[in-house]
Write a structure and sequence with these properties.
The protein contains 34 helices and 22 strands. By secondary structure, it is of the alpha/beta class.
Length: 817
């Protein structure tokens, strides 16, 4: 029996699953079947699955230490992992027996799945990319750990009330906790703030600090079809003392817990409102909190197998997912120098070998900076270290390129113009041995624009790794009907070898396959329509073209351009009701940052346009507009497979990559988009005849701006555009408050149209006419959609992670017994 304990531990046949579910229901929830709620059954099923992941997780963790593997540590403020139940069932390949086990117990598995809440650990593409990458690291056996923050409330739950975005707390942990995590109360680290620096000879001591405790929570990230599993370790803030008993006993109940609340506020919400000084400082404290805990943890891990730090760069690789974790650089130096007695030259040399950095934006205003005064007050030792890095770097530049004061000013880690600020992206570039962009265009523009001077100094430091998506979540799990069709025609291995989708191309001319493909798409549209009807009381026509733009609401993503097309289409239908219009359902979803007023105004405009269009009897189902609130991973899994048209319409040169474009194309949507981000590579993959490209290129955008862009001239010269904008300005969509959208009109017509929506309007409208023309030919449309699916092999996160491992982290797949 002892020899077989691992081999036979927790079998996964139907009867074994039923026993585990029953035991969990009884011994974990204290319920019998007749009194159990849906949440009780869900918890019992989740624990049944989680327990079956533990053995492979233990094997993997043990292998890290036994084989002294180099580990890639992925630091990210967001991990948008979504629901875990279905994903874990798929990884274990036990969906069928679990469904049967639950059915025998009179429980519907689909109902349970829909009862699981999304983990509120991220917001947008940055966090979803991190989640895809963890999935691929595990599936491909790369020794790795993800580090982040265990947000108590996430960003916020978005409600749309009277057309306005209203933010409410996302109580994702409140009612049942997180059954997928393992609390680690024994893994606690001191994270310090404030205080001052005390010089002792050539040493610096950081003293009189305030301490917050970081406690670890571990979640298993299973690989697909493998015994390998990696770890997502999240940190939660705990007070160093729970309560001031003296204050409490004197009746000062609020002050008794004030220190505790202030400490634990650090991990309450994702991206606190940074429109106030206190909000910005909380964001700084958050970022340092999780990198300090993470670095202390990974150093402890290193010390288990190593007597010193001589081979630290051979033992670990630390990857910074955007600028949020860049405080890890001075923190590593602080730990090595202050806590472990290493000399600066050696510590700095190690640091430059260990760190790598992914840049996710070309917009200078989005590159994080921190006021020197704030950083000095909150993290005085780190500010001192940053100054030391800057001095050494600028001295090395003087030796390399001569004493060019202008170049030094441009390269300095400290922006001296106005309020002195630390440029965190610059710090990341100087400290990292590799810096990557996330699409070919983005990486090239990164070298030419925001990091142009650094590219001259470090010509070999900048590389490209185009983003990818995990096939397991975004096709196999999200689109089971299409996945079954693919399995029938090309086998099941595409889930780990996405390039095998190429074998679908001949089926674009197979009438039987085309018919089945169309049926799968229609089924997905019906599923989305059912959700919209049940939750929003809006009826969708599944035979209409589902035109989908789902992403963060931001001016550069140009939801406003989409709205202008909707208004233009509405006006055209009213002017020519006898035309055989292609019925179209335009679907928006996405959150606006709580302090981003223009984005919130755009949401209100979408809602008002929707109310006007959807309630106009003259339209007669030819056009419908829907805003789906509280967009997240699970809603994306419902919406994306239903999309016919994928809106990827950011101004060229602003979107780093995008992954929604990849997800929708892989699920059979045709893309309408600019030559921005990964759209360029998607166009190369699918062929220009299978994508709708419009608008100015990045080079043309720069030329337009150089020549003095005049959006008012475009407005005056295009009657349809003028009509749409005048309707927005004059209250046609907001008769109760005619001036409601003046800010949108002014931003486009009078204040420069920063993202060139008007410059691309005519091209966009013309391309939408081509979309209509093709949709009238369903067989041609479906063949192009199939070609899109078949061409998505390159856009796998497995390929992306293999490139990171080979070209940046220098790690190889780890075999386990």
């Amino acid at each position: 029996m002892t020899n077989n304990v691992h081999e036979n531990f927790l079998p996964s046949d139907e009867d074994a699953l039923k026993r585990s579910i029953a035991n969990n229901l009884r011994y974990r929830s204290g319920k019998i079947p007749i009194t159990a709620s849906r949440q009780d059954w869900l918890l019992a099923a989740e624990l049944t699955v989680r327990n079956r992941l533990v053995e492979r997780w233990m094997k993997t963790t043990n292998a890290y230490y036994e084989k002294n593997a180099k580990v890639a540590y992925y630091l990210s403020m967001e991990f948008l992992i979504g629901r875990s139940f279905n994903n874990s069932l798929q990884a274990l390949d036990i969906s069928a027996p679990m469904r049967e086990a639950l059915r025998d117990m009179a429980v519907d598995m689909e109902d349970l799945v829909n009862g699981e809440v999304d983990a509120a650990l991220g917001n947008g593409g940055l966090g979803r990319l991190a989640a895809c990458f963890l999935d691929s690291m595990a599936t491909q056996h790369f020794a790795s750990i993800g580090y982040g923050i265990r947000y108590e409330y996430g960003m916020f739950k978005q409600e749309i009330i009277n057309g306005y975005q209203v933010e409410t707390p996302d109580y994702w942990l409140l009612t049942r906790g997180n059954p997928w995590e393992f609390p680690r109360p024994e893994v606690l680290y001191d994270v310090r703030y404030g205080g001052h620096i005390k010089k002792e000879g050539d040493k610096s001591r950081w003293v009189d600090t305030h301490t917050v405790l970081a406690m670890a929570y571990d979640t298993i990230i299973p690989g697909y079809g493998t015994e390998f599993a990696t770890t997502l370790r999240l940190w939660s803030a705990k007070a160093s003392s729970e309560i001031n008993l003296s204050d409490f006993n004197q009746g000062n109940y609020s002050s008794a817990v004030e220190a505790k609340n202030l400490s634990e506020n650090i991990t309450r919400v994702l991206y606190p409102d940074d429109s106030t000084l206190l909000g910005r400082e909380l964001r700084l404290r958050q970022e340092y909190f999780f990198v300090s805990a993470s670095l202390q943890d990974l150093i402890r891990r290193h010390q288990r197998n190593h007597a010193n730090f001589d081979n630290l760069a051979d033992s670990i690789s630390i990857h910074l997912n955007d600028t949020h974790p860049v405080l890890a650089v001075p923190e590593l130096l602080r730990l090595l120098i202050d806590e472990h007695g290493m000399q600066w030259p050696k510590a700095w040399a190690l640091t430059q070998k260990i760190f790598s950095y992914t840049n996710h934006t070309l917009m200078s205003e989005a590159l994080e900076t921190w006021p020197v005064d704030m950083l000095g007050r909150v993290l005085p030792r780190h500010l001192m270290i940053i100054f030391d890095i800057n001095n050494e770097f600028l001295a090395s530049i003087a030796g390399q390129l001569g004493d060019d004061s202008g170049l030094k000013t441009r390269l300095s880690l400290i922006d001296e113009v106005g309020e002195r600020r630390v440029r965190m992206a610059y710090l990341a570039v100087v400290a990292s041995h590799k810096v990557n962009g996330v699409s070919k265009l983005h990486s090239e523009l990164m070298r030419q624009s925001i990091f142009a001077d650094f590219a001259k100094v470090f010509p070999d430091r900048f590389v490209n790794i185009t983003n990818g998506i995990t096939p397991r979540r975004w096709l196999s799990q999200a689109n089971p009907m299409l996945s079954n069709l693919l399995d029938d025609r090309i086998g099941k291995d595409w889930r780990t070898h996405f390039e095998q989708l190429e074998r679908l191309k001949p089926f674009a001319n197979d009438n039987s396959f085309v018919s089945s493909f169309r049926a799968a798409k229609r089924y997905n549209k019906q599923q989305l329509g059912r959700w919209v009807r049940n939750n929003l009381d809006i009826t969708l026509n599944p035979d209409s073209l589902f035109d989908v733009q789902v992403k963060r609401i931001h001016e550069y993503k140009r939801q406003i351009l989409n709205v202008l097309h909707v208004i233009t289409r509405y006006n055209r239908i009213l002017a020519n009701p006898e035309v055989n219009w292609v019925p179209r359902t335009v679907i928006f979803a996405g959150k606006a940052a709580s302090a981003y007023q223009m984005a919130k105004t755009i949401i209100k405009l979408i809602s008002d346009v929707s109310a006007k269009v959807n309630n106009d009897p003259r339209i007669n189902q030819k056009l419908k507009v829907v805003f789906i609130p509280n967009y997240g991973v699970s809603l994306a899994e419902l919406i994306i497979p239903a999309a016919d048209l994928s809106e990827q319409i950011s101004m060229a040169g602003t979107e780093a990559s995008g992954t929604g474009n990849m997800k929708m194309a892989a699920n059979g949507a045709l893309t309408i988009g600019t030559l921005d981000g990964a759209n360029i590579e998607i166009k190369e993959a699918v062929g220009e005849e299978n994508i709708f490209i419009f608008g100015n290129t990045a080079q043309q955008v720069e030329e337009i701006k150089r020549n003095g862009y005049q959006p008012r001239e475009i407005y005056e010269q295009n009657p349809e555009l003028k009509q749409a904008l005048d309707q927005i300005r004059d209250g046609f969509f907001s008769p109760d408050e005619p001036a409601r959208f003046h800010s949108i009109y002014d931003s486009l017509v009078n204040y420069g149209d920063r993202y060139l929506a008007l410059a691309d309007y005519a091209s966009y409208i013309a391309m939408q006419e081509q979309v209509d023309a093709l949709y009238r030919q369903p067989v041609r449309w479906d063949r192009k959609a199939i070609t899109n699916v078949a061409s998505m092999g390159y856009f796998s996160s497995d390929r992306a992670i293999a490139e990171y491992a080979r070209d940046i982290w220098q790690i190889s797949p780890l075999e386990i017994e």
